């Protein structure tokens, strides 16, 4: 209790908390985009439940990993060397998650471009996918993003209460934004392709990070923000043309 009171009175702790909350929210965007796209493939009555379960699992994983901080830190230690680069368990997890994201995004882009060939249309949200399959895929990506998130938190502050508050704040934002984001993606088909492109880029970045090539996150999110702004302008232009015709 005394340690917590000292943190409350420490301005540096407040700066670390705000910084970490922002960082965790930004990192959670990747996870949220994947959950939104995947759950939109389920029947409408199951989507909200799947999103809540997916985000709930993300919270459980992050809090569980925070309880094993000492073990998490060891994940960054190299376990073997290949081509002059030492690979840690964190690297292997990022590479596996990146490969899965690249495969999943590529597959969904192909289905979206040629839905007739695959007898499914992701835009319509009626693609065949079982509830358990969706939860399984969400669980896999939750693990990847959770490990990356907690290692980032450990690197930014040594105080466990600050990490817990930041994680709770980030997951709360994800929970609030989940349905609006998923509904927005479903109602705007062109956004689906943009979101899949984001996932493809994120997957490639994870693989690069796992291979030892540091890619500044600021560049990635700046590119995503610029692309989203361009798409918003396109949507405004399309709506203006439709109103003029009407």
Topology readout:
Blueprint: H1 2-8, H2 11-39, H3 44-66, H4 69-74, E1 78-82, E2 85-88, H5 89-113, H6 115-118, H7 131-156, H8 160-187, H9 189-210, H10 217-245
Antiparallel strand pairs: 1-2
Main location: membrane
Membrane topology: Multi-pass membrane protein
Keywords: Membrane, Transmembrane, Transmembrane helix
Architecture overview:
This protein is mainly alpha-helical and 246 residues long. The protein has one domain (2-215). It has ten helices and two strands; from the N terminus they run H-H-H-H-E-E-H-H-H-H-H-H. It has helices at 2-8, 11-39, 44-66, 69-74, 89-113, 115-118, 131-156, 160-187, 189-210, 217-245, and strands spanning 78-82, 85-88. Strands 1-2 form a two-stranded antiparallel sheet. Helix 2 (11-39) runs antiparallel to helix 7 (131-156), helix 2 (11-39) runs parallel beside helix 8 (160-187) and helix 8 (160-187) runs antiparallel to helix 9. The radius of gyration is 20 Å and the shape is globular. The N and C termini lie far apart (65 Å). The relative contact order is 0.17.
Keywords:
246 residues; mainly alpha; two-stranded antiparallel ribbon; globular
What general outline do the C-alpha atoms trace? globular
Count of distinct structural domains:
1
Q: H/E element string? A: HHHHEEHHHHHH
Strand content: under 5%
Query: How would a textbook summarize the main sheet?
Result: 2 strands, antiparallel
Structural class: mainly alpha
Share of residues in helices: over 70%
- Multimerization state: single chain
Distance between the termini: 65 Å
Radius of gyration: 20 Å
Membrane topology: Multi-pass membrane protein
Transmembrane segments: 12-34, 55-74, 86-103, 123-147, 159-178, 190-213, 219-237
Family: Belongs to the TerC family.
Subcellular location: Membrane
């Amino acid at each position: 209790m005394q340690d917590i009171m000292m943190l409350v009175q420490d301005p540096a702790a407040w700066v670390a908390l705000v910084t970490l909350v922002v960082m965790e929210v930004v990192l959670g965007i990747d996870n949220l985009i994947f959950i939104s796209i995947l759950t939109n493939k389920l029947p409408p009555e199951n989507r909200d439940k799947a999103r809540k379960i997916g985000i709930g699992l993300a919270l459980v994983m992050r809090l569980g990993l925070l309880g094993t901080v000492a073990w998490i830190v060891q994940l960054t230690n190299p376990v073997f060397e290949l081509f002059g680069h030492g690979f840690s368990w964190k690297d292997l997890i990022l590479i596996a998650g990146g490969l899965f994201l690249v495969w999943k995004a590529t597959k969904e882009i192909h289905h979206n471009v040629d839905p007739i060939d695959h007898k499914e249309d992701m835009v319509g949200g009626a693609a065949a996918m079982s509830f358990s399959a969706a939860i399984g895929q969400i669980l896999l990506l939750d693990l990847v993003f959770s490990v990356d998130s907690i290692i980032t938190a450990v690197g930014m502050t040594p105080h466990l209460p600050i990490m817990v508050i930041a994680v709770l704040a980030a997951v709360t934002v994800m929970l609030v934004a989940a349905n609006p984001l998923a509904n927005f993606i479903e109602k705007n088909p062109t956004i689906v392709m943009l979101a899949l492109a984001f996932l493809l880029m994120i997957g490639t970045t994870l693989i690069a990070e796992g291979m030892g090539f540091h890619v500044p996150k600021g560049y990635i999110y700046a590119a995503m923000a610029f692309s989203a702004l361009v798409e918003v302008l396109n949507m405004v232009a399309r709506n203006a043309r439709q109103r003029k015709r009407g």
